[in-house]
Amino acid sequence: MKRRTFFQSAAIGGMAAAMAPVVSCSNGTYNDQEAGERYRILGEILQEPVFKKTLFADPVIIRSVELLRFENSYICRVRSENGAEGISVAHNDMRFLVPIFLHKVQPFFIGQDARELDLIVEKIHDFHFNFRYGGIPLGIPLATIEFAILDMMGKIAGLPMGQLVGDLHNEKVGIYVATEFRDRPLEEHFERIKETVANYDAKAIKIKVGYLFAGSRDIHDPGLPGKSEKLVSMVREHYGSDWSLYADSNGYYDAEGAIRIGRLLEENNYAYFEEPVRFDQFLEIKKVADALELPVANGEQDHSYSNFRWLLANEGLEIVQPDTYYFGGFIRSMRVARMADALGKTCIPHMSGGALGYIYNSHFVSVLPNAGAHHEFKGYRTHVPFECPTSPLKVKDGKIKVPTGPGLGIVIDPEFIAKHERVRP
Ligand SMILES: [Mg+2]
To answer: Is 216 left (phi over 0), alpha (psi -120 to 50) or beta?
Structure first.
């Protein structure tokens, strides 16, 4: 049976499909009116509140937003008029984005009431034509400030930062070991997967198939042709049927190639196919999703709601993967997760950030009603010295316990923070 999900909500399902079709991609598996109605519903979900402003009786006026630097390490510190403080650790790519942070994002926050965070993280796109900077250039500075504000507000409310944007659904986060090595020849690639996976107490792996991204199709891939095809079955054979396996092509294939390798993934019982074709080619993504039983995942490169909304409305996507840094923070990413949830789809956020990305990701996943079984994990390596009083933050039985202290829930070494100096415009 074709893997399709239907409206969870009777209210949604019972609505008359009186809207004019928003899309016209009928292929016999659904009709345009249903897709149009779904599209409209998803638009309504985007308008719903996310940040729990009712936790805060009084205004929390943002007095300062500072970017602090020590060598290649960046920290954001937010302070309120009444002395509350929040800290976030920036994504490794912040070093490329400092002028955008200082000139195009930071000024918008000064004097705002942090309780209006839902609105602020959207209005920032209009400020100084910032929508032209969509993607990582705007997303990382925005998320870095949002995380510091959520840390501050979490400390005020006595709640972990995730629970300011959702209710607790997962006290522990299941992880998969993310592996790379796609530029290596077949045997070396396979060996390095095994070495990496052996470091963790987990039974879920994501492998890379194809070679880099779509634009690299003409570049020589060591071991091609047929390297990925061999790797897919080698990994399954080695680990056996009780391991969860996922595959990611980072948009390497065209639709035809993705369907071909997708069938092989199905034969080998992989559980989803991530970025089978280029992330923004939504018609191609849908074509792959229609052809395969295997769920399709996409979204780590997306920077607007549009692609997610269209693909969800048109049954082109089973798993949404916003990156909480690239997409501009928890609130915006939660809106994507909620659109997916309304249609019975899953959210498995992409994890980036280097330094403490996995901790931010854990908080976000902790409040997802529609989290997948396993989430991205790339190791513990970080330049940030910290302690976490409420969790060992280690993978045990395939899971990481989410910190339960207020805000980010960790204590960063004050001496390390003190080494950082304010970056001035
Ligand atoms: Mg990916």
So the answer is: alpha
